[in-house]
Structure formats: C-alpha cells, structure tokens
Amino acid sequence: MLLPSCSAPVERTATAQTPSYRFSYFRSMDAAGADWDAAAPPDDIFLQRRYLSVVENTPPHGMRFGYLVFYCGEAPIGVALCQIKYFKGDDNINDLDSRGKEPCFFAGLTKWLKRRVAGKLAADILICGNMLLTGEHGYWFDYNRISPENAAVLLEDALEKVMQNHDRSGERMPVILLKDVAPARRPHRQHFVQKGYVEFLIQPNMVLHLPFSTFDDYLGAMSTKYRTRAKRAFKKAVGIEKREMTLLEIQQELPRMYELYREIANNAGFNMVDLNEHYLFALKRDMPDHFRLFGYFLNGKLLAFFTTIQNGAELEAHFLGYDKEHNHDLQLYLNILYDIVRIAMESGCREVVFARTALEIKSSVGAVPHDLCCYLRHRNPLVNRFTGTLLDYLKPVEDWLPRHPFKSEVEEELTT
Questions:
Q1: CA 139 to CA 67: how far, in whole Å?
Q2: What are phi and psi of 79, to 5 degrees?
Q3: Going by C-beta distance under 8 Å and a sequence separation of 6 or more, which residues neighbour residue 261?
Q4: Which of 121, 29, 126, 50 is nearest to 83 (CA)?
Q5: Are 128 and 364 a contacting pair, CB within 8 Å?
Q6: Average pLDDT, stretch 14-21?
Q7: Cβ density class 87-124: b for 16+ within 10 Å, e for less
Q8: Measured in whole angstroms, how far is the alpha carbon of residue 368 from the centre of its chain?
Q9: CA gap 155, 77 in Å, rounded
Q10: In angstroms, rounded to a whole number, what is the distance separating the alpha carbons of residues 248 and 283?
C-alpha cells in the first residue's frame, strides 16, 4: 500500500495488548492538524506546532518528517516526532587529523576502521526524536490516559508500521533510532530492548541548575579559582560589542553566521545535522517571544553568535558559531557560556540545557552530566546482532575531566 497524501493519515490499531488504542501517521504538521495540538504537551515548546513548523519549513539538508498522533478511542493522548535522515557513516565522521591531533599508528588504525565499518552503513534512518536538540523531545503521552507500559508498546508498534508503510512507497528504512530516553523510563527501555533494540549511551546532556537569585550570586557561589577564571574571561572580551540582534540584522548577517556555524560543525567528530541556512532567521521571525540571537562584534565584524530558546523554566542553549582564530585570545566560547547563564537568570529560568559536546568546559561553568539512552534496531536480525559493535565505532569519544566550580556546600546542594 502506498503512503497516502498529507491530508489522509495512515491509521493502525495497536497490538492486542492495547486494544483500545490506535495511531495515525501524517507527513506534515499541517496535516496532523488539531489532533496534534490537542495531544501535544503544553509545557514543551519543542513538541508544539509553532516550533516544529519552523523546522519542517527550513529543514536540515536531507531530512524529511513524519508525525504520529496516538488515540484512546477518539481522544488524542500522545504524539511522536519522526525525522527521516539519509545516513552514510563515513560521510558523518570527520578526519581525526584535520582537527589538529598528532597522527599516530593507533589514531590512523582507528580512523581506518571507522571508515571501513561505517562505510557499510548507508540508508534512510527512521528517527523518533529531534536531531537538532538534546533531551526528551521525541514523544509524549498523557499518562493519566495510558500506562507507561502500554505507551511503550504503542510507540514501538507505531514505529514498526511507519517503517513498513515507507517500504511500500519505495523508501526503504532498515534502521530505527529512538533518541534520548531518560534512564528513569524503565517500561520504555525494557520493552524496546525486548523487541531487539540495542541500548547505548553517547555524550551526556550537560545541564546547569540555577538556585541563584542573581548572576553575582552565581559567581559568588564559585570557589576562588573559578571566580577568578570567569573574571579573567570577562576582561579578555573587553572591546567586544555584545548585543541582541534584530530580525533585520540576522537577515543581513546570515551568510557570516552560517560560515561561523560551519566552522564549528566541521570540527565535530560526528555530525548528523547540516543546518538549513535560513533556520535561525525563521526562528526569530516566527518565535520572537521564545528565540533570541546574540552577536559579538569587533570593529563592526561579527566574530561570534549564540542562540537561546526559552522552554518554560528551561533555557535551551541552541546553535552557535565563533571565529576560532580569535577564540583563545578573546575567550569567545567561555564568554558565550557565561552570557547564556546570565540570560537564563534574567529570564527567570531554573536551569540551562547546554546539550552535548565540549563537556569539560561546560562543567567548568557548573553544568552536570545527565545520561540519556538511545535505542537502535536494524531490521535484518543478522546485522542487528552486530549493531552494538558498529555503534562502538560510530560513537564520538570525548575524554574529559569533570570540573567542580562551586564551593563544596553549593556543589552538594546542586547534586542532591
């Protein structure tokens, strides 16, 4: 059966274990319509229409979308975001040597193995989750209307049926990835493992909790070593003009911002998202009350930028870019992290979600790691047996030393 048009959803009844539940699958946010709006969580903007429409209209290169709405009878009770991405492993792993590391036998052997093994994996992947974010923004259920156990069964069954329907339209998807599930969600984890999914961890989500009243209180809670380090970074940035950018300024600076973003993205060891050049402009245009973009200028030239999205009491540190040649002398990245903390506190947020990568420097401003589980299954049982080994080659590895910038009593309060 061919997939229907966006105006006609695919409907499936769930397994016999959950006879009163069903789901519909849509190929656009507009097609998902009022049912998506009724079922989406009110406290997570990243699963609401306004944000998802921006992503759909300015998609990362090579990405397509699908939307699942779950029902109990006729009542919408949950949603799940699907992203479909063509993935070729050796295209997503950057050369180790190009990042300035000294070549050696073991580094060369590792790179060779990654190239040979990852190069065998080339296909569309069905992703339940959002590759532009870190955190549990892939699916949501109203657990007053469905148990976690039944929700896990319903979600897994829906993803399997979506993959089968794409097959019928000639879009073969041999791999399903469920992204970013909190370890506390045991029913979901257990069910997906029972269904043959391989559970794995990549870098943790770095989150800064903010029990402080002001930015000065935040600095005052630090030990002398880290407070001195912060003040030194602030002095390095003297002479830089920092300002929030208007929609017109963003439009004018888009080519430069994309250049700075690519400079950082190309330096990542593993990258599955190639951001749309107009994505940040669309966020500012369509979500001005949630999205903000700040620029660092020196002699009128944009040296760095960073973006934030306020999601209730959380501030999401979103995409950024900076001129690496000036990063050390002006401490651009460290100043960006401190400025995000300052903005979060001024906005009344209780925590900052710094996401993955650059774990050690993020821990130096007080962020702590939060593990998130991912689940992957290849439809070929034989290949699936070796999925864990393949993931070991593909996973980015970052050796880092957790830092503890706060005084001991504050550190204890933040980690308990």
A1: 10
A2: -140, 160
A3: 275, 319, 320, 321
A4: 126
A5: no
A6: 56
A7: bebeebbbebeeeeeeeeeeeeeebeebeebbeebeeb
A8: 17
A9: 12
A10: 13
Task: Please say whether the beta carbons of 341 and 361 come within 8 A.
Answer: no
**Residue 307: closest CA among 273, 359, 343:** 343
Identity (one letter) of the amino acid at 147?
S
Helix extents (H) in 8-104: 29-39, 49-57
Do residues 80 and 52 lie in contact, with contact meaning Cβ atoms separated by under 8 Å? no
Token readout for 308 is 């934030």
Predicted confidence (pLDDT) per residue in 344-386, tens digit:
999 999 999 999 889 999 999 999 999 999 999 998 888 888 8
- Return left, alpha or beta for 34; rule: phi > 0 is left, psi -120 to 50 is alpha, else beta: alpha
CA neighbor of 224 nearest in space, from 367, 364, 405, 415: 405
- The residue assigned the tokens 């903005």 is 343
CB 374 within 8 A of CB 177: yes
Say if residues 84 and 126 touch (Cβ distance below 8 Å).
Answer: yes
Please name which of 262, 134, 119 lies closest in space to residue 206, comparing C-alpha atoms: 134
If you count them, how many residues does the chain have?
416
316 CB-near residues (< 8 Å, 6+ apart): 46, 133, 308, 309, 310, 353, 355
In 3D space, the residue among 396, 397, 389, 398 whose CA is nearest the CA of residue 120 turns out to be: 389
The C-alpha atoms of residue 281 and residue 279 are separated, in whole angstroms, by 5
Strands 368-370 vs 205-209: parallel, antiparallel or unpaired = antiparallel
pLDDT surpasses 80 at 250? yes
φ, ψ dihedrals at 176, nearest 5°: -115, 135
The pLDDT value recorded for residue 265 is 84
In single-letter form, the type of residue at position 87 comes to: F
Angle at the Cα of 193 from the Cα atoms of 389 and 373, rounded to 5 degrees: 70
List of domains in the chain: 10-203+371-385 (3.40.630.30), 205-370+409-415 (3.40.630.30)
Q: Is 101 helix (H, G, I), strand (E, B) or coil?
A: coil
Two tokens, residue 396: 């980015």
Banded model confidence at residue 128, pLDDT cuts 50, 70, 90: very high
Q: Which two tokens stand for residue 182?
A: 């909190």
Main-chain phi, psi angles of 406, to 5 degrees: -90, 155
The tokens for 6 are 């966006």
Structure letter (DSSP) for residue 313: T
